[in-house]
Amino acid sequence: MDQNNSVSVFILLGLTQDPQRQKMVFSIFLIFYVGTIVGNLLIIVTIKSSKTLGSPMYFFLFYLSCADTCFSTSIAPRLIVDALSAKKEISYNECMTQVFALHLFGGLEILVLVLMAVDRYAAICKPLHYPTIMRRQVCRILIVLAWIGAFIHGTTQIILLLRLPFCGPNLIDHYCCDLQPLLKLACMDTYVINLLFVSNSGALCSCSFMILMISYIVILHSLRNHSSEGRKKALSTCTAHIIVVVLFFGPCIFIYTRPPTTLPIDKMVAVFYTIGTPFLNPLVYTLRNTEVKNSMRRLWHVKIMTE
């Protein structure tokens, strides 16, 4: 499709054009990105090193942290660097790669969140059958399927995007390459392509969100038959999951389930799921989880004792 393109470089307008605000963007999002990487890597190392965090819930949390790390890395470094750059240029190939990475790891995060909800449903609603339903081999197969599903999602998006010709202008009113801003620049009628995007990304977000909400409603309803202590522990875990789901899926549904239009608020909404959620996930899953906090303390204690 390169022969249809006279654009080899795109220019990202970023979050703001004001020099002072750009410095603020650099500082704020550098802190967010470093916090995201440190927090998620800490969870990854803790789960891999701890013998007490071997349950399916932490198996899936490990992959959620991996997805968060890669998802954030596909967006945040360029946003941080561009905040201090005079020219925020990104080549056509880099732009397409960023779109693919965004949807590959974003799709993986969505599917892992669904698997975590399935795990909590089995643990709370089917406790006697839980060891059989969520045995390690089943969990591995589910994660492989999640990777395959995310790859198919990302590949479908990029194949559709590569069909679009770009002949100018090349100004992307966003801080990263994504579907809606690029559709706006295409030199063709994008109505059908947008419908395909919505049926892919929009359907993935909306259907997954509905599945998650229904599963958590069923879980919360079933907790009335549990003991007070068991109810408190389950509520703590489920509340953390629900917080993450709402913060991630709300903005995604807003962006990917509407006609091909861009709104001034789009960039700020996108910040929530591209930068905010990967940063908040480690906080939500550690501050509200005693087992993870205790494992981190033991790991830190062993580290100090061995030095």
UniProtKB/TrEMBL annotation:
InterPro entries: GPCR_Rhodpsn, GPCR_Rhodpsn_7TM, Olfact_rcpt, Olfactory_Receptors. Belongs to the G-protein coupled receptor 1 family. CDD domains: 7tmA_OR4A-like. One of its GO terms (cellular component) is plasma membrane. This is Olfactory receptor. Residues 39-285 form the G-protein coupled receptors family 1 profile domain. The chain crosses the membrane at residues 24-45, 57-80, 100-118, 138-162, 201-223, 235-256, 268-287. The lineage of its organism: Eukaryota, Metazoa, Chordata, Craniata, Vertebrata. Pfam families: 7tm_4. It is found in: Cell membrane; Membrane. Keywords: Cell membrane, G-protein coupled receptor, Membrane, Olfaction, Receptor, Sensory transduction, Transducer, Transmembrane, Transmembrane helix. It is a multi-pass membrane protein. It comes from Castor canadensis. The keyword Cell membrane applies. The keyword Transmembrane applies. GO terms for molecular function: G protein-coupled receptor activity; olfactory receptor activity.
